[in-house]
Design goal:
- By secondary structure, this protein is mostly helical.
- It has twelve helices and no strands.
- Helix 10 (189-201) runs antiparallel to helix 11 (205-217).
- The longest helix has 21 residues, at 164-184.
- It is globular.
- The model is unreliable at 1-5 and 13-18 (pLDDT under 50).
Length: 239
């Protein structure tokens, strides 16, 4: 059980080194630093701040790699944001996601980034809000669907420690969102790996192995040695 909980912590794309901050500290600091709030908290900006934002936009889209394409620049900022998130630097990650919003406020992937920040902070309610807002705009965004499924997987583990029966509906909901994401894009190994874990929890060894093998075929970078051991221990693979 301890090893599976460790696996779940990895599902949220956050490591334990680098900058550390908890949810309460984040909320407190965000009261005076709007850059820690999604879309800057929609707080009014001074003329100087507006000018700085416009200067940033102009300088960024003038770069050769973007050639004036604000959407491309926005996606690049999201990618940078996740790079910082993987290293545990949540603040810089949120700065980049907000810059992505500045560049293209219609880029639906910003909710993927905002949600990931709150998942890393284990502020699941705020993470859910971000995923649901994004999916309201685009119900077929596979990155949001996969991470929203991960939210329910986290809820399953949180409740399982108290009462397994009451936790199971969250596992079923996680599978439903992950399957929808998988049906839209079967090449995302984060999706297939999480599906394998979900079915492992349901004692469905056939599907646990199916999605595990698909993850391996996609490169297997998301698979952990601990999960592989647990899968082999519970689900003896037929030769």
């Amino acid at each position: 059980m301890k090893r599976i909980l460790a696996i779940i912590s990895l599902l949220f794309s956050i490591t334990t080194y680098g900058q550390q901050i908890n949810a309460d500290q984040w909320i407190e600091e965000a009261q005076t630093n709007s850059r820690l709030l999604p879309k800057y908290g929609h707080k009014p900006k001074t003329e100087e701040q507006k000018k700085m934002d416009q200067d940033f936009i102009n300088q960024t889209i003038q770069l050769e790699q973007f050639k004036g394409d604000r959407t491309a620049a926005s996606h690049h900022m999201i990618k940078l944001g996740f790079n910082y998130l993987y290293r545990g630097d949540l603040k810089t990650a949120m700065y980049r996601f907000n810059q992505a919003y500045l560049l293209d406020s219609l880029n639906n992937d910003i909710y993927w980034g905002f949600g990931a920040i709150y998942m890393a902070l284990k502020n699941y309610d705020l993470a859910k809000q971000q995923y649901e807002e994004g999916l309201t705009i685009d119900a077929d965004n596979t990155r949001l669907l996969t991470d929203y499924g991960t939210y329910f997987l986290a809820q399953f583990y949180e409740l399982k420690a108290i009462d397994t029966k009451s936790a199971l509906p969250n596992l079923d909901t996680a599978i439903s969102y992950l399957l929808k994401s998988y049906q839209l894009d079967s090449t995302n190994q984060h999706t297939s790996f999480k599906l394998s874990i979900c079915y492992w929890n349901k004692d469905d060894c056939i599907n646990a192995w199916k999605y595990y093998d698909e993850t391996v075929a996609l490169g297997g970078q998301t698979i952990t040695a601990a999960y592989t051991a647990d899968l082999k221990n519970k689900c003896k693979k037929e030769k």
